[in-house]
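Chapter review: from sequence to fold.
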Amino acid sequence: MDAEAAKLIGAGLAAIGAGISALGVGNVFSSFLEGALRNPAAADGQQGRLFIGFAAAELLGLLAFVVAVLLIFVA
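The token string follows.
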């Protein structure tokens, strides 16, 4: 296999992580909304955890994107 082809295949596989992180963000918000609708009084106390979960899922997506860009342009 050519090194250029292997590099692009690796970048494509790393880019899959960006799509999967979108699923993670959706899961975080759907779980929060489900819990908030079941118990509206506790929703304010859980909002901090919502943003932490959102940030963690988004960070993984950004890291996958950076790895993909590094593989395409630097490696």
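Two observations follow directly from the output. The chain has one domain: 3-73. The chain has a mean pLDDT of 87.
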